[in-house]
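Backbone shape codes:
***
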Amino acid sequence: MNNSKKLKAKKEKKKDRLIEPKSLRNISKPWLISFGVLVIILIGAMLFDQLYEKTILTVDGKKYKVSDLAYYFYNVESQYDYYDQIFGGNGSYWDMVFDEETGETVRDNAKQEAVDSSLYNEILYKEAVAAGYSLTDEEKNNISSQVDSLLKNTLSSSVKTRNKFTKSSLTDVLGKVALVSRYRQDKIDSFTIDDEAIKAGVNYDDYRQYDIETLFIPTTTTDEESKTVPVSEEEKAAAYDKLKSYYEKAKTTEDWSKLLPEDEEDVTYADTNFLESGTTYSEDMEKMMMAMNNGDVSDIYEAEDGYYIVRMVNNNSSEAYDNEVKSKITAEEDKQFEEFYNEVKEKHEYSTNEKALASMKMGNITID
């Protein structure tokens, strides 16, 4: 009887040892690190999902979560991220100060831009629908093509998964964008804008454009300190002779873009233009070119940076003038539409969840 009790006690004790946790010393360090990383990822994913499903915008009683507005946020984030990549892709562009007085960063400004874009599209979509707008068959076909292109060629797998971008969700949001775009243009067309008066306010002479073609060989180089310095007299003479070897051919060749051989490394061809008020050429060179007639080919001209052969293509192009007029008309259209939108916006009840927005970090919401 006593032996039986002792045996039972021993078995129970052994069982206790089996479920005893192992000492951390006996667990391999790589396994601990991997486990820790996994925990962090899981916690991060949970927090992201919670953030993603928080209401950040309310319009006329309808609540919008980040997931509802993901396309608008993605458009803004991807554009700003492109600039960040130019700056090295380490977040330095995102964290640049945008407003010296308030300390607002590019990241802060981008977030406000995304919120404004969301509000703009949702309010104007409501206005368009209320005005009887609906998608045309042509718009539906265009949207279908855009969605296919986004899913196949533009959006990465991680972005599609992260934002739940599907054919259905993208079709819906692009449908809204298309309807808003047409509604906006129709409103602009209804505004009273005097295009001719705007055109008359732009001085043609200030925007007279000179279209030219050039053959150029440099007579400067870069030293060890990355400073621009002139080449030697011997090299300068060689550069002149090389450009001169193309001179006769240049006078008789119609298409200068095909004048130079493919293996030419020193002489370069350019198709460019300039305005009298905004040229990088020297004053003397500018005067020389402005005196040329269409089709004229200059003598070899020595500038500070090298030798040029210039051909005047069009000494009275209206391209810059037309662009300036168009720009001013567009600015007036934008101004009047903004006034209209601000009036419309006041007819709707809207609010933002500043607490939820404060916890969101642009650059990490809809993109990796």
